[in-house]
Amino acid sequence: MSINDTTVNNGSQPSDDRHKAIVFIGPTGVGKSAIGQAFAHSRDIGFVDSDAVFVERFGSIPAFFAEHGEIAFREREAIIVADILARPPFDGPYVLSVGGGAILNPDTRALIAKHTVVWLDTELEFVLPRLLGQPDRPLLTGDVAAQWQRIADERRHLYEESATLRFDASTGSVDELVQRISLALMG
Ligand SMILES: Nc1ncnc2c1ncn2[C@@H]1O[C@H](COP(=O)(O)OP(=O)(O)O)[C@@H](O)[C@H]1O
Ligand SMILES: O=C(O)C1=C[C@@H](OP(=O)(O)O)[C@@H](O)[C@H](O)C1
Ligand SMILES: [Mg+2]
């Protein structure tokens, strides 16, 4: 199965462009953190990753999952995203990359709907080599391929409903993807 490169919805736009975020969502391993950061750098705007903020505040994500469980993680993740969007650490537009499960929270979905939401989409075959090399994702235990596919399938409708723009991030370098996303966003 292949994914069409881009799909643009007429998503709601924030009233105040000064604080407009470009929010990267999508399944774990697709490149939200790497591409979000490179995209921000290319446009000389701020970048924040909600997982990085989580680690600053609460330490390692796998250790937190092991000690407190997913529900506790989700509660803190939702608060972090809400804090960033309410009080952005930058003046002007900025990029926010969230964790793959952030969109599970309905309040988070409502908050990001006021911004430009870029869904980085892909399929298992493209991310699996990366995931196998990075055993730091607490939901991907045991059969990593089966777990990734199950989680991606469960969340797909939430990515779809949240996205302003869907982008096939399966192939291409980070810099190439940044250029393609820029073109798709700016026209
Ligand atoms: N297009 C790409 N090409 C090559 N490596 C990539 C690409 N996108 C991401 N990566 C690498 O894959 C890994 C997972 O990317 P990451 O940005 O952490 O994904 P996410 O935040 O969506 O989980 C990182 O090591 C990253 O550098
Ligand atoms: O998919 C998920 O539920 C998660 C994805 C991770 O972020 P990335 O999507 O950036 O890997 C991180 O938030 C945590 O391990 C949970
Ligand atoms: Mg990430």
TrEMBL record:
Domain of life: Bacteria
GO biological process: amino acid biosynthetic process; aromatic amino acid family biosynthetic process; chorismate biosynthetic process
Cellular compartment(s): Cytoplasm
Protein transport as UniProt keyword: no
Pfam families: SKI (PF01202)
Reactions that this protein is recorded to catalyse: shikimate + ATP = 3-phosphoshikimate + ADP + H(+)
Assembly behavior: Monomer.
Cited function: Catalyzes the specific phosphorylation of the 3-hydroxyl group of shikimic acid using ATP as a cosubstrate.
Protein name per Swiss-Prot or TrEMBL: Shikimate kinase
Species in which this protein is naturally found: Lysinibacter cavernae
